[in-house]
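Thought: the user wants the 3D structure for the chain below. I'll pass the sequence to the structure tool as-is, report back what it returns, then summarize two notable features.
Action: structure_tool
Action Input:
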Amino acid sequence: MTRNGMTRRALAASMTALAAALPAHAQTSTPNADTRTAGEVTGIEDIVVTAQKRSENLQRTPAAVTAFTGSSLVQSGTTDLRAVQNIVPAARFQQEGATTQVILRGVGSNLDFGNVEPTVAFNVNGIFTPREGTSQPFFDLDRIEVLPGPQGTLYGRNALGGTINVSFKRPTHEAETSGVIEGGNYDLMHATLVQNLPLSDALAVRAAVDYTKRDGYMETGAYSKDDIAVRLGLLYEPSTDVSFYLWGQYTNRDGSPSNLVNKGFDPNTGQFSENAFLRKDPWDELRVGAFADPALLPFGQPIKEKQKYHLWNFGGQLDVQLADGLTLTYIPGYFRLDSHSRYWLGVIPDFKEDNYRLLTQELRLAGDGERLDWLVGLYGYTQRTYGFSYVGKEAGPFGFIASGVLHHRVKGIALFGQATYHLTDAWRITAGGRGSLDKRKANGISPDVGNPLFTFEKSYKRFDFKIGTEYDLTPKVMTYLTYQTAYQPGTFNEVPSTPAKSNRISPPKLSSITGGFKSRFLDNRLQINVEAFYYSYRDLLLQAYDASKPYNEIFNAKAETYGVQIDAVLQPTPDDRLNASVGYLHARTKKYAVAGLERFENLSLPYAADWTINLAYQHDFHLASGYIRPMVDARYESSYFADFVHTPGTRQRPTWRENASITYFADSGRWSAGAWIKNITNKAVIAATAAAGIPGPATAYLEEPRTYGARVTFNF
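Observation:
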């Protein structure tokens, strides 16, 4: 029992039900869009998150968690992870071919080769999902949670820089037919259809299908979509003590990958210019005039290429309440991906293939007591991958292997636990630890001169821990301080080891301190959350990719990151809401493990803008049978470079990007209709970017141009 006489299980269940009904925005939820009436007096509602693998109020979670409900993403026209970056502080979720680069507080993997794993974990329904799975569509979601900073104790490998948790909507015991229909520029057609059926008092099934077709953003027609995803979920609850959720999803992407454009050369002056593109329309990758000279087009003009992307992911969750306050949870998962695509690095064609097979299992036991809340777990995984990349054409000039990992297996096991003890009603302490054993084995064809074969095999042992304290200054103001560590298994360079130089790359390790407070004032109408952080990285993986070089070495480096994040919500009336987030980030390399890189020390990490600002405002106008909600939001990023050596042409200048939407909600909650526009001023912002190109000095993926559309939702 809790100290107020209510079981924590019952409290968590009621909070989860509340959160599911609320279309939350960053950090908090908003009043229910379907049921709120004019003049209703309400403050900022709570939202429940599972960042610490248990349901708890976001305002009681000692971390800077940013959370969104699925309905809020629908309202803003957000259909994938890349668009979520517009509303997350100090984050970049940007496209890189079939994958999405995920970077939180300056840390993330900026290449997608087979020997480079992500440093931010992406989890779907509690199951780790490899990097290429981050580009699956978002539909029929319950919520998304973004946890910046190390999460090594509870999430283990690949959570060095943070964690993103995506949760699907589960089946319910009520009949429901719902959907979304959208159309927009670039001949966008998007539809989602969901059917929920209760088959008995204990059994329910939920099926959803999502389809998107859109013309390409590039002049050639590249960067298009023709994607379909199908999901089936089954929920079996034979009693109040047992719940079994089983789900599966298939995703097929059959559009055209984005081509990269030339950046850093001014065609009017014939000289280097950091912010210049070759064409007035940056998304036009064709060459004209002097740049159409056959000498500059060794493979001809860029064209619209094709991709194949087949993703199967399955999972489940079994929860059994063994006793009051004691729950056993088992989460199995399977991920399979077969993907290959062709695209153009400026005027040079590129081919990339990725294949994944991943099996994961997690078993944990959680207890809630009068003074002690605890959790212990066992986690195991086996991942097999194959990755190959070829620059140029096999029957043409300048062709070479960029990556040739023929066989790559990573497997491991971990034992973890965390406990929070309530010293008093206001003061709590937390301690946790994770012991990990990982083994990596690989072989392949080296991209180095002569393409020799390479092999690699190495085991890693690591113990990470976490200690923290929380104190409630008042019932509405909580302070916290946490120290924790994290690590990622080491990897290899794609070259043979020699007596003079090993291909072994040391495992990255992190020590961190975070502290802050979460607060509510003015009768729950003002919320201010602040977190300061300091991260010290040892052996962080860095790689500066030059598309003209067949081999780009991975380096270990020391790095230091510190900063502060301030999130505020003001709801002066039931109809007005203002969200504001400001993040300052100082992310710098300090020292490299190899000689000759001293001149690059104290430079900012890739894609690590010093300042980010997120602003959003909405107001509800009430009508006789519903209300209209216009919303505007904007994001500012100061300048950043795309690699750690600050290659000319890879710098993004400071940029504001603005979005807006307007939606009519019927009071019945049965339907809504609205419109949205993103990147209103049509800013060209670089995504994955690298050195080289013709004429260069860099080539860049670009984020989406101005897009707009109209949307209708229904729920019966």
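Final Answer: Structure generated. The chain has one domain: 8-715. The domain at 8-715 is CATH 2.40.170.20 (Maltoporin; Chain A).
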